[in-house]
Each structure stands twice: as C-alpha cells, then as structure tokens.
C-alpha cells in the first residue's frame, strides 16, 4: 500500500482525487514557476515540454524530502498556436488573455508526474482542444465579474466546471484534463503500482 502526496495547493486537483477515492496529503512544492518558464522559453521549449518539466520538478522537489510516499506533481498550460499562455496575476491580464483566446481554438495541456525519493517513476501528458466563442469585450468583462480572484488565478482564466463552460463553442477532450488532472491515467498507474 502507498500514501499519496499532492504537490499542489490546487483545491480542484484535490477534489478530483477525493471524488476518485484517492486520499492525499497536500504539500505544495513552491517551485518558482515563472523563473523556470522563462528559462525553458529561452531554450525554445514548447508549452508541452514546459508543462511536463514543471510537473516533474514539483513532484521531485517534494519527494526528495519523503522516501516513503508517492508524490503527484501536476501542471497545466494553455498553448495558443505554440505560444505559452500563463496564469494571470491580475484582472487586466486575465482580460487580455481572454481577448487573445477570443474566437480561437487552443490546447489546454495537463501534465502529471509521480515521483518517489526525488526521482520520477511515471509521467503522463494529456491535451484538450477548446474553441472559444467570438465574444465582445463587454461579455468578457461580464464573465470576469462573476469569477472570484482565487478561482481566476488558479484555473488558467476559465473554470470549465462552472461559468467558464459558457465561453466555448466546442470542447474536445477530458474535462478532468481541462481542470488539471487526467485522473483516468493516474488511477491506471496507481492500480498497477506495487
């Protein structure tokens, strides 16, 4: 048997694990994501590579200090035609991101990594394709007015499980992936873990 540590302070990720009968202890990694992203972007890393690297770094960092438990790290990014779109740090940035995505198709990439003793045991990356409706600035501002700061800054601008669903004309992919945790593959791996 194993105990699972979630290297993330994301309430949604913890809820997904709980709904799937996977209890976990939360220990955020506190890695400096912005610095890592800048470094990887300088080396022309794709959004997918950035997502994978961040998930692995988070899991490895927390598992370095824990030689008993499995540690789950996760990261999600938006890929707009190869351009990395990061989480907003204020409402003006959030509006600019929504304007950039407005009327366009983009990929939401979610990567997960399971580590033990500071080393990766397993990783997986999934992608969902979302097409945003063509909306007016007033409609975008109206949407943002309904979203709390906490939700806004932790869900890549839109909450697909809530108000955010109304932003899209087409969604292709697993909803759990969009919320940041491709749970089916995580469960498959953990079910086979001895």
Largest sheet: 7 strands, mixed
Second CATH tier, the architecture: Alpha-Beta Complex
The fold-level CATH name is: Maf protein
Cα-based radius of gyration, to the nearest Å: 17 Å
Number of domains: 1
> What is the number of beta strands?
7
Tell me the number of helical segments per DSSP (H or I, 4 or more residues long).
Answer: 8
User: Into which percent range does the helicity of residues fall?
Assistant: 25-40%
Structural class: alpha/beta
Q: What can you see in these coordinates?
A:
There is one protein chain. By secondary structure, the chain is α/β, with parallel strands linked by helices. The protein has a single domain (4-192), classed as Maf protein (Alpha-Beta Complex). Strands 1, 2, 3, 4, 5, 6 and 7 form a seven-stranded mixed sheet that branches. Helix content is 40%, strand content 26%. It is built from eight helices and seven strands, in the order βαβααββαββααβαα. The relative contact order is 0.17.
Task: Outline the secondary-structure elements.
Elements: E1 4-6, H1 11-19, E2 24-26, H2 33-42, H3 47-64, E3 70-80, E4 83-85, H4 91-101, E5 105-116, E6 119-132, H5 137-145, H6 149-154, E7 168-172, H7 175-178, H8 183-192
Highlighted features:
194 residues; seven-stranded mixed sheet; 8 helices
Short description:
The protein has 194 residues and is of the alpha/beta class.
């Amino acid at each position: 048997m194993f105990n699972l540590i979630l290297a993330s302070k994301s309430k949604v990720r913890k809820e997904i694990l709980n709904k799937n009968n996977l209890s976990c202890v939360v220990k955020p990694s506190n890695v400096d994501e912005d610095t890592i992203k800048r470094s990887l972007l300088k080396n022309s890393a794709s959004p997918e590579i950035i997502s994978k690297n961040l998930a692995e770094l988070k899991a490895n960092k927390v598992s370095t200090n824990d030689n008993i438990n499995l540690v789950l790290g996760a990261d999600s990014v938006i890929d707009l035609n190869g351009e990395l779109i990061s989480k907003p740090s204020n409402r003006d940035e959030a509006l600019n991101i929504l304007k950039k995505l407005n009327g366009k198709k983009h990929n939401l990439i979610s990567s997960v990594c399971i580590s033990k003793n500071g080393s990766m045991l397993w990783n997986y990356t999934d992608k969902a394709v979302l097409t945003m409706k063509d909306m007016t600035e007033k409609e975008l501002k109206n949407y943002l007015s309904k979203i709390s700061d906490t939700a806004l800054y932790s869900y890549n601008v839109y909450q697909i499980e809530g108000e955010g669903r109304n932003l899209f004309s087409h969604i292709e992919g697993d909803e759990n992936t969009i919320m940041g945790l491709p749970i089916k593959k995580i469960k498959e791996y953990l079910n086979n873990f001895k």
